[in-house]
Amino acid sequence: PALPIPAVVAHGVLDDGNGFCISHMAEGVTLQGLPPQDLPPVLAPVANVLQAIAVSDIGSARGYGPFDASGNGRNASWQEFLSAVSAYDWGSVTGDNQVADMAGRCAELARHCPNVRALVHADFGSNNVLTDGHRITGVIDWSEAMYGDPLYDI
Fold first, then answer.
1. Which end of the chain, C or N, has fewer beta carbons within 10 A?
2. What range defines the domain where residue 100 resides?
3. Residue 2 domain-assigned (yes or no)
4. What is the predicted pLDDT for the residue at 127?
5. Structural contact between residues 126 and 150, judged by C-beta atoms closer than 8 angstroms
6. Does residue 26 sit in the same domain as residue 96?
């Protein structure tokens, strides 16, 4: 109840190897769709949902970072995942050396991050959280979910 995820009605793998997941439609509007004056009542519910994600039971799965179809993370440690993300050539993608510099700094700092292992949504943005204006009615689009430090969602 603390983590409103719409019920899944079907999932599988398509012929091209991509996975799919179909769920019931969640009621509400995205946080992004709320006028700014309507956001204060949902701040505490958003924090509660972030906490519910962080304390979710992840069972006996292993690893960090994005997980495979069997539920195991691809990386041996949280630091390894962060270093791999930071090592990507962000400057060539964005054309912005400042982004590349920040990614390099993140890579340097990754070795200092604790090896926390919890469920992370990894795309917990205002367009993936639904509300009725008072409570969170759905958390959708778990395609980037992974294991790691819940602060990643913040």
1. N
2. 78-114
3. no
4. 94
5. no
6. no
For the chain, which residues score pLDDT lower than 70?
87-88, 90-91, 93-94
Any idea which residues carry the catalytic annotation? 123
The CATH number of residue 55's host domain is 3.90.1200.10
CB half-sphere exposure, 30, CA atoms < 13 A: 9
Q: How far apart are CA 22 and CA 42, in angstroms?
A: 27
Q: What is the pTM of this model?
A: 0.86
User: Following DSSP, what letter does each residue of 32-57 receive, concatenated?
Assistant: GGS-GGGSHHHHHHHHHHHHHHHT--
Q: Assess contact for 31 and 39: CB atoms under 8 A.
A: yes
- Cα separation, 154 vs 140, in Å, equals 16
Provide the CA 100 distance to its chain's centre, in angstroms.
Answer: 22
Which of 79, 77, 152 has the alpha carbon at shortest distance from 121?
152
